[in-house]
Amino acid sequence: MRHFLDISRLDRKALTHILDTAKSFTSVDGRAVKKVPLLRGKTIVNLFFEPSTRTRTTFELAAKRLSADVLNISIATSATVKGESLLDTLFSLEAMNTDIFIVRHPESGAADFIAKHVAPHVSIINAGDGRHAHPTQALLDVFTIREHHEDFSKLRVAIVGDILHSRVARSQIEALNILGTREIRVIAPRTLLPANIEQVGVQVFQNCWQGLRDVDVIIMLRLQKERMQGAFIPSEHEYFQLYGLTPERLALASPDAIVMHPGPINRGVEISSEVADGPRSVILQQVEYGIAVRMAILSIAISTGDPGDGDET
Prior knowledge:
Layout: H1 12-25, E1 43-48, H2 54-65, E2 69-74, H3 86-94, E3 100-105, H4 110-115, E4 123-129, H5 135-148, E5 156-160, H6 167-178, E6 183-187, E7 203-205, H7 208-211, E8 217-220, H8 236-243, H9 247-250, E9 258-260, H10 273-276, H11 283-302
Parallel strand pairs: 1-2, 1-3, 3-4, 5-6, 5-8, 6-7, 8-9
C-alpha cells in the first residue's frame, strides 16, 4: 500500500488488516516509553492546506510514536502565499528526502493529483480533500464501532447531519458497506442530502424520530458552513430543534447504542452537551483510537507488505 487515498480502493481483507494492525498499536500509549522503532530514520511531512486540530495532531503523534522525524508545514507562512504552485512546494519538500506526505487540501482530488507526481519512493496519505474523502477518519470511526459492536452484520448505523458537504460521511458509508453493515441510515433535511444518495446503499430519513429508532450507532456531523454557498437551513436554532441529538432522541436508539462525532463539535447545533458528555458518547475514544489507526496506516504504507491489491488504496 504505497498511497492511502480513498476507502473505495480497499477490499474487506485490506480494511480489516488495517484495523487489526491498529489494534496491535493501542497498547503503545500505555507504555512508559510511548514509542516503537518501525519508522526510525523516516521523514514525514504534515502538509495541511486547511485548518485541523485532531487530524494533524493525531498524525503527528502517530508518526512520533513510530519514531519518525516529523515536519509540520504551515501553509499560511510557506512560499505558497508568494505564488508558489502546489507541485513546486511538494517537489521542494520532496528534495529534502521526505518519505511520506500527509496532505489535507480544500480541493477534491488534490491528494490523488499529488500522488501521481511524487517520486516512486514517496507515499501520500489523504487527510481530507474537499468534499471527496476523509479515509483515515472513516477508519478510526469503524475501529471505534468495532471496539463496542464487533459484528457489523448485525448493526444499524445512523449518520445524521450535513451529508451533502461531508467528506467524512462519504468515506464512512464506503467503509461500513465494505464491512457488511446490516443497515446504514442517513438522516438530514433534503437540502443537505446529495442527489441519488440511495444508490450508495443507504436508507434515507428526513425525520429524526423515525431514523433513530433502534439504531446501534449514531454518528453526528456538523454543518459544514465553510463549504456552503447559500442558505441550506432556515437557522441553526431551527436545525437543532429538528435534527439535534438530545437525550430524548437518543432514547429512541438501542439501549447500548453509542454516540460518535468526528469533530469539531458545535454544541447546541447538532448535539446537546448532555449527550456529547454523556455515558453513551465515545467521541473522545475516537480521538484516542485515531492515533493507533494512523500508526497502522503509516506503518503499512512504508512497509514492503501490501494488504491491498496494488500500490494505491
